[in-house]
Amino acid sequence: MKRYWLLFSQSVTVVLALWFVLVTLKPEWVQRSSAWRGVSIIEAAPSGGAFVVGSFSAAAKKASPAVVSINISRKSPHNGSRNDPWFRFFNGEEDPNQAGLGSGVIVSADGIVLTNNHVVAGADEIEVTLNDGRRTMAKVIGTDPDTDLAVLKISLDKLPVIVWGNSDALQVGDQVLAIGNPFGVGQTVTSGIVSALGRNQLGINTFENFIQTDAAINPGNSGGALVDTQGNFLGINTAIFSKSGGSMGIGFVIPVSTAKQVMEGIVRDGQVTRGWIGVEPTELTPELAQTFGVKQTQGVVVAGVLQNAPAHKAGVRPGDVLLKVDNKDVSTVGELLSRVAELQPGQVTSFKLQRKDDTLDINITPAQRPKVRPSKR
Question: Which fold has domain 163-262?
């Protein structure tokens, strides 16, 4: 018995000695092996430091350099009363220059920057500040109020460029990061998940297909980037749902599938070309179906048709229920607007509609969508 005890004691002593040597000379081996067993959440970094398993630092380092801060200034219209001492007494001093803050994303090495239209609308001067501290003035290449996107151009060397991701592959529950300059405090990274996809009918833009996220988005984040956990570009942070002015966990993001299409159109043609047929659509309800005498439960009701518009020329009437555009189903007003906008002006397209008890196939040649007047913000 004494011999076994002595053997056990010697074995324990040897194991402890080996453990001491490993901890002293190769601590990363011990940390890594412990993490494999789920004991520790610390691993050795390649540089010799340590990082937390599940950290998004690599994604943030990859994407952050390409996210910029945007400062704009607008000159107030001259007010002759400003020189009146009584006006100044009752109204205070008026700042002749109005400032605004936002964010943007560098998407090409030649200086193309994507941001929101509402960030730069009406700006007299636009200054872009990079994450490395460089500053430069930007010019507007073009804007698209229908999607609230704007394309800027800056002229600097060795620009960091974000890596395009695939917003169409997103699923509810995917982890994401929002990067921007909230409240002008400096670049900030927040994390969350995709909480919904395809959000529309919010009254924010004409064409809405938002990614919804609970990653904190606040004023000043507009125009910044939503990225995945690999640091790939998924969308432009655009709006928040808030009763207080701060983040309440519901943010809306324009997907890169839309942003890229808009950007390419603006860079190539100076504008975004969209199809238009000239109807006033409304959602189909049981009451409207009964009013127009249709048994259809899905589709979009044509409430009105503009005189001499493409739909009018093709024979579309008020009360018709549009079912398909170019063989693609439409069930909401947002879907109809998006489907028609995707059409090439001048190219004959098939539409399926319901008129009372009859299902009709008609051809419509869409025109180019008229430009909308810029809204006052």
Answer: Thrombin, subunit H (2.40.10)
